[in-house]
Write a structure and sequence with these properties.
Largest sheet: 7 strands, mixed
Shape: globular
Number of domains: 2
Structural class: alpha/beta
Distance between the termini: 41 Å
Order of helices and strands: HHHEHEHEHEHEEEEEHHHHEEEHEHHEH
Strand content: 5-15%
Number of helices: 15
Helix content: 25-40%
CATH architecture of the largest domain: 3-Layer(aba) Sandwich
CATH class of the largest domain: Alpha Beta
Bound molecules: pyridoxal-5'-phosphate
């Protein structure tokens, strides 16, 4: 379409009040969809060679020792916790062991911990990076602490040098919920690879998407095989345990040798094929999103109406974020306007979300399970009071769109 035609179309949409800025636009390329269609037409829809192909590619490109695909990021978290609690593991987590977790997390970063009888211990966040506050974390380590679940919020990360050192010194298992940060690097290492387990999500609007889908990565062969067995009913098929049990239990059909507890968390080959094709464009997506982000912020700050109404999160020497959204904090002085402002953005068709869950401790489910908390969570509360994010698209934003977003954001001044 020519530029004039695009401008005309955008003006018509604007006049008819149909212009929208969604979290993500044109999520799938023709090729992505064709890869999925090919799998459907082959008749082999359930997990098979496409999944294996994607897992191998993911492990190689992400520089992870092992990668196992599952049907969602939530399943990746669940499987990681299940494996860490599994008695087949040499060192495994037991009931009432304490796991440190940030107050800003996703529900399924937390619930597997509770479901496995472990004790979540909540830690406030660092307002500079939305992630675990290391000082608060250190103050909450006790004799019962056995693990840390860190949650890399919206492409950002806590100080992984310090976190890794703490885990080494205290011999803690590290889980990295990287569902919002595929492709982010800390010290040039992909997030998800610091921990014993790392999880990723390919849900719609994340860094790459196959609609639904997820991946677990881990460091050692033992964990990989436990994860594999738990993913599929707890049977031995395709695991390194198979031959041992086959010889020991000759009277059982070797295809149905159940050696462990288990779930069915397998992905479809259809989603694996789509995700695999998207994954080829991850670096391209990262670069375009970064440019779109910088353009929005630069245009905003150059505007006559700019008066430090918002704060943004910056990359630094250590962290190179892979954004899928633009997290924004409303300046403390005017954050009382947040509710009305979000209504205004919704009315202006700029899709937005809270920063993950806000302070998760304020959610009703915490009370339902009577989860205990120690200390204050000032920063997590501040993020709930002031924060939101908008999407970053994987195609270059037009000037028109950037100006539209910027003008609507700056209209916060008009809200009383
Ligand atoms: C931090 C975090 N962890 C886990 C998940 C769950 O991922 P999924 O939606 O693929 O189950 C999400 C979902 O957005 C998330 O933001």
């Amino acid at each position: 379409m020519s530029t004039i035609k695009i401008l005309k179309k955008q003006n018509i949409l604007l006049m008819s009040n149909k212009f929208t800025y969604p979290l993500l636009e044109n999520a799938f390329s023709k090729k992505d969809l064709n890869e999925g269609i090919k799998v459907i037409k082959s008749g082999q829809i359930t997990m098979s060679s496409e999944t294996l192909k994607f897992e191998k590619k993911f492990a190689k490109k992400n520089k992870s020792n092992f990668a196992l695909m599952v049907n969602s990021g939530s399943s990746a978290n669940l499987l990681s916790i299940a494996a860490a609690c599994n008695p087949m593991r040499k060192k495994y987590l037991k009931k009432n062991d304490e796991v440190l977790i940030p107050a800003i997390c996703w529900s399924t970063s937390l619930w597997p911990i509770v479901q496995y009888g472990l004790k979540p211990v909540f830690v406030d966040i660092d307002i500079n990076n939305l992630n675990l506050n290391i000082e608060d974390l250190v103050s909450k380590i006790t004799k019962k602490t056995r693990a840390i679940m860190c949650v890399h919020i919206l492409g950002l990360s806590t100080n992984m040098d310090k976190l890794r050192k703490i885990c080494e010194q205290k011999k803690l298992i590290l889980f990295e919920d990287t569902c919002e940060s595929l492709g982010s690097k800390y010290n040039n290492v992909n997030l998800g690879n610091y921990g014993d387990f790392g999880s990723y999500s390919f849900y719609y609007s994340h860094q790459i998407t196959s609609g639904e889908g997820g991946m677990v990565v881990c460091k050692n062969l033992e964990d990989y095989n436990i994860l594999k067995s738990l993913r599929s009913h707890g049977w031995s098929r395709d695991t390194k345990f198979h031959n041992f049990y086959k010889k020991k239990f000759k009277n059982i059909d070797e295809k149905f040798l159940f050696i462990n507890s288990g779930y069915n968390l397998r992905p479809l080959d259809v989603t694996a094929a789509i995700a695999n094709n998207q994954y080829k464009r991850l670096n391209q997506f990262i670069n375009i999103r970064k440019k779109n982000r910088n353009l929005i912020i630069k245009t905003l700050k150059k505007n006559k109406r700019w008066n430090d109404q918002f704060l943004f999160f910056e990359s630094n020497k250590k962290i190179k974020p892979s954004w899928f959204g633009l997290p924004i904090l409303i300046n403390k002085k005017i954050n009382f306007k947040r509710k009305k402002f979000i209504e205004y953005l919704n009315k202006s068709k700029i899709e937005n979300r809270p920063i993950v869950s806000g302070n998760f401790l304020n959610q009703p489910a915490i009370k339902l399970y009577k989860l205990k908390t120690k200390g204050t969570f000032k920063n997590a509360d501040l993020v709930q009071k002031s924060g939101f994010f908008i999407g970053l698209h994987t195609t270059k934003l037009s000037k028109f769109k950037v100006n539209y977003i910027v003008e609507k954001l700056l209209d916060i001044d008009q809200i009383k």
